[in-house]
Amino acid sequence: MIDESIYNNLLVELKRGTQILQVLSQMKRTQYGYSLLQTLEEKNVHIDAGTLYPLLRRLESQGILKSEWDTTESRPRKYYVLSNDGEELFSQLKKEWTNMCVEMNQLLKEEQI
Amino acid sequence: MKDMIERYVYAVTRRLPENIQAEVKNELRANIYDMLSENPSEEEIEKVLKELGHPRDMAAKYQPKERYLISPKYFGDYIYTLKIVIMIFILVSFAIGLIEAIIGYQSANAFDLIGKIFSVGFESIFDGLYSGFAIVTIVFIIIEQVQKQKKMEWNVKDLPELPKEGKIKISRTGTILAIIFSVSFSLIFIMILVEYHKYIGLYVEGEMITPFFNPDAIKVFIPFFIGILGLNIVILLLKLVDGRWTKRVTILYTIHEIVNLVLLIVFFNISNLIDPNFFNEFSNIIEVSVDEVANGFRVGFRSLVAFISVLVMIDLVSLWYRVIKFDKKKA
Fold first, then answer.
1. Which pTM does this prediction carry?
2. Fewest CB atoms within 10 Å of the CB: B9, B223, B265, B296?
3. A4-112 CATH
């Protein structure tokens, strides 16, 4: 019997690769950290808050997202949105993902027969 | 209540580089307040902070670059180098300490000297550990930093040669010869100590004037030398059985060498080893003062022992070097 922690590790690794696509898919419109978390949650995608916030910052420093502070409200908020380069990058990644899905389905189907 | 949020934010940001601290602080604070209701209770705050995770993990995720001194890529090489360097450092500082102790040694008491040797042993272990660890670690940190900048180029031709299998093996004939020689030498030595020391001395016209050794002084050593001989025989037999430098052979051999060395050092350094009468008679014959004769012998013995110490240390260093290298190859 394989240890449960090994299974969990594999699952985390599997999910990690998809997280960036999940995030980018929601960033065509402007979002702040918590609103993004909720949007994803509504679509049954769960990302830990502790993972999502630093991820946004990293994507920004890589130039994929751009950000702006909104200080007009009582509480200041940092809003993120896809940059032009980011949009291009996202559509490329999306293509890769679609191909990958086809390949994966092929492989997994073969295995079923 | 708000205090807890600020403390959490601080616990995260203080681990980050200064230039991003302020920005992350604002961002994190805004995110936390977004997750809370208008007037949050203490439990609610606690729940949200717990959800964000340990401040150290959080800080690690905010870290712009991964930070480490020695990466997993170099860790194996690091441990391997550490083992060899620390071992060499300990043995070298032990050898230097021994020589210093022998040269500076004055007391007549054999136990004093044994105590001194033990303290040298402990000191050298600590010295070797500290300095070996510090130097190897610093060198690897530098290598890591330099390598990080450039892509690693490598050539198949540069791959290390496979170590020769036979090198670590112990030849059977060699061992049998060693048994014959070392056992007969030890036996002769012990026989001299037990019985024939009487006949070693100063002779004038076939007549012995004075013996060389002081029988009372050497009597004490007989059981120790017999013990060492026993240990030596056990090790030689083990060598024959194992046929190569196994852990147990190597460790026993090291113990044997060091105990043997300590015994020799003590033996040649006790001040009453030589019969006092010998010095008197000898100084008469060669017409120098008794003090000068005694001093000459002392210096002679100490140089001899220092020379043997160096040889033993070189032997042990090279042996352990090969054993560790071989171990590495197997792994």
1. 0.59
2. B223
3. 1.10.10.10
